[in-house]
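[job 4471] stage=fold_predict status=RUNNING
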Amino acid sequence: MKPINDGWTPFYIACFNGHKEVVEILLKDERIDPMRPDNDRTTPFYVACQEGHSEVVEILLKDERIDPMKPNNDRQTPFYVA
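[job 4471] inference complete, writing structure tokens
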């Protein structure tokens, strides 16, 4: 899926907003890269942690494609902001 100017994809936005059901649906689509970062190298997992969306975080941690230690441009990891 093509991102908008800041690099946010529909999957990223779903994680940012805590839309658990949408995240679950999109994770099943092979076209989705759940680790695709925005322009600041911030991942969907990072923003789910940052926004306190624990149910989305739990879903993402079950996916083997997720790297929970991937830092953004500021070298902050998702667990730092959680």
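[job 4471] summary: The chain has five helices and no strands.
[job 4471] exit 0
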